[in-house]
Specification:
This protein is about 35% helix and about 25% strand. It is of the alpha/beta class and about 300 residues long. The protein has 3 domains: about 120 residues, 3-Layer(aba) Sandwich (D-Maltodextrin-Binding Protein, domain 2), CATH 3.40.190.10; about 80 residues, D-Maltodextrin-Binding Protein, domain 2 (3-Layer(aba) Sandwich); about 80 residues, 2-Layer Sandwich (Double Stranded RNA Binding Domain), CATH 3.30.160. The strands form 3 sheets. Strands 2-1-3-10-4 form a 5-stranded mixed sheet, with helices on both faces. Strands 7-6-8-5-9 form a 5-stranded mixed sheet, with helices on both faces. The chain has a 3-stranded antiparallel sheet with strand order 11-12-13. α8 packs across α9. It is globular and about 65 Å long.
Length: about 300
């Protein structure tokens, strides 16, 4: 009997969209597939702020366990949710061509409040990185916790007396729910691997490794490797205000990385342009540069605050 590749996914609309991308790429090659929706801890507890419940791996742990227990053959994740250290016996099978990487602001009525000195706007996001970057630019604003899938967060924004909320553009645009009342935050550097989708499988599953190899995007794989290396070298985890973005153009790797204090008052950044043959350990080198500038103190403060 021909093997059916069981694709594990969270059951949110966005997660299912991602899983269907992998499903379509596999079926186009002639493989038989089956989607297996699985609830994650991050989808069950929608109240507690992510930084209080140990966010690292919270959206991937349930799928990883299903993979290790042989309930599924492939797990599909938003790459930015994946810890920099994978569980033993699990490996990257393919990183899909990257989508939109920017963050955007969804506002209630208009964006006049962004230009009003002294106005205390109320902005919602569950991301420590977004909070820190926003407070660095608008230190007088009030930040509010916002949890749930994309649709739930949009509904919450509509119901609350907030001025706006911050989302990843990829999340809203992929499922066609981006409101007209939204703008790109061109000044906000994204999370490492934001906008990328990864498929993982068991390291001994050569069948799935071969099946996924055909749609691994080399440029996205290299860019996200550099970004995640930067994150891992600094301290590694979604509960830290670390931003990174790399892209390849004309055989050159362009990289920018940032580290903020939790309140945005302290800030270190770095940028590099190197040839492809010099890209090895670029993320690590950039992180060590940040640490030498004084970033080590911020990292220590964040660790002590946990």
């Amino acid at each position: 009997m021909e093997k059916v590749i069981r694709i594990g996914t969270r059951d949110s609309q966005l997660a299912l969209w991602q899983a269907h991308q992998v499903n379509d790429l596999l079926t186009a090659q002639g493989y038989r597939t089956e989607l297996v929706p699985i609830k994650s801890e991050g989808d069950i507890d929608l109240v507690t702020p992510l930084y209080e419940i140990g966010v690292q791996g919270i959206f991937t742990k349930s799928l990883d366990l299903a993979l290790l227990n042989n309930r599924i053959d492939i797990a599909v994740h938003s790459f930015k949710d994946v810890p920099t250290q994978l569980p033993q016996q699990i490996v990257h099978a393919a990183i899909l061509k990257r989508g939109p990487v920017k963050d955007l602001l969804v506002y209630k009525t208009n964006t006049d409040f962004l230009e009003q000195p002294g106005y205390i706007a109320h902005i919602a996001t569950s991301s420590v990185r977004r909070k820190a970057q926003w407070l660095r630019r608008y230190p007088q604003h009030q930040l509010h916790n916002l949890r749930g899938n994309v649709n739930t967060r949009l509904q919450k924004l509509a119901a609350e007396n907030w001025d706006g909320a911050i989302f990843a553009a990829a999340g809203l645009e992929r499922i066609n729910v981006r409101p007209a009342t939204s703008i790109y935050l061109d000044w906000m550097l994204p999370a490492p691997a934001q906008g990328a989708v990864v498929a993982v499988c068991r390291e001994d599953d050569q069948f799935c490794l071969d099946a996924c190899a055909a749609f691994n995007d080399a440029d996205t794989a290299l860019a996200t490797q550099i970004e995640r290396e930067f994150l891992r070298t600094l301290m590694g985890g979604c509960t830290t205000p670390i931003s990174a973005y790399a892209y390849i153009q004309d055989h050159t790797v362009h990289f920018s990385g940032e580290l903020c204090s939790l309140d945005g008052s302290q800030f270190f950044s770095t940028s590099h342009e190197v040839s492809l043959d010099q890209a090895q350990q670029l993320g690590q080198r950039a992180a060590e540069e940040i640490m030498a500038q004084g970033g080590a103190e911020i990292v220590a403060q964040i660790r002590n605050a946990k």
